[in-house]
């Protein structure tokens, strides 16, 4: 089934793109990846909802590989913990998504994201974002206002175009320090 879609898009590439050969190689890679699946449904599920499920074993580094960086979706991180976690783009419309009408499911996903950190948790968001209609100021996610954060919360603003002469995090600590007390309050809020 995937090969039929690939063949269809290959024709479009040749008609519409100067770099059709390079793009066609990308389609070949997708086709090769899809051959490992018995059904289109399984392939699309892994590709869209859980793209890192095939490498979850790599997300559990042993103690000898402390420099490993793991990039993950929230769905893929369920059940895993890391010393340091960054949750990106905690803005209204992104987390929670403006496309999802199930706010409770979004809230549960946010809970999963923030409870993956054993030691330090950083919640980030851009002040300014870009859409098709132009730049706009972002709004902090409503989920952040629902949580009573511990006493060690820092806000650090870095402006685009400004150079940072030293490590901005050196004396700041983490955005949210993961302490037993703070996470028990978060778990109490979410009912765990």
UniProtKB/TrEMBL annotation:
Gene3D superfamilies: P-loop containing nucleotide triphosphate hydrolases, PCRA, domain 4
UniProt keyword annotation of Hydrolase present: yes
BP terms from Gene Ontology: recombinational repair
Keywords, alphabetical: ATP-binding, Helicase, Hydrolase, Nucleotide-binding
UniProt key word Hydrolase: yes
A GO cellular-component term linked to this record: cytosol
An example molecular function term from Gene Ontology annotations: hydrolase activity
Pfam families per the UniProt record, alphabetical: UvrD_C (PF13361)
Record-linked InterPro entries: DNA_helicase_UvrD-like_C, DNA_helicase_UvrD/REP, P-loop_NTPase
UvrD-like helicase C-terminal domain: residues covered: 40-124
Protein name per Swiss-Prot or TrEMBL: ATP-dependent DNA helicase PcrA domain protein
Annotated source species: Leptospira interrogans serovar Grippotyphosa str. LT2186
Source lineage: Bacteria, Pseudomonadati, Spirochaetota, Spirochaetia, Leptospirales
């Amino acid at each position: 089934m995937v090969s039929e879609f690939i063949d269809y898009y290959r024709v479009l590439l040749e008609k519409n793109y100067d770099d059709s050969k390079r793009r066609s190689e990308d389609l070949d890679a997708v086709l090769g990846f899809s051959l490992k699946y018995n059904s289109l449904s399984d392939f699309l599920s892994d590709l869209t909802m859980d793209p890192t499920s095939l490498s979850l074993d790599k997300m559990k580094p042993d103690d000898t590989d402390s420099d490993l960086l793991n990039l993950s979706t929230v769905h893929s991180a369920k059940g895993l913990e890391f010393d340091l976690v960054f949750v990106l783009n905690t803005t209204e419309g992104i987390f929670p998504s403006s496309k999802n009408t199930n706010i409770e499911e979004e809230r549960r996903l946010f809970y999963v994201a923030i409870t993956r950190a054993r030691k330090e948790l950083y919640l980030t968001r851009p002040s300014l974002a870009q859409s098709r209609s132009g730049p706009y100021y972002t709004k902090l996610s409503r989920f952040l206002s629902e949580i009573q954060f511990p006493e060690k919360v820092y806000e650090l603003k870095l402006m685009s175009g400004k150079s940072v002469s030293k490590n901005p995090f050196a004396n700041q600590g983490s955005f949210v320090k993961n302490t037993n007390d703070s996470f028990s309050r978060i778990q109490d809020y979410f009912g765990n």
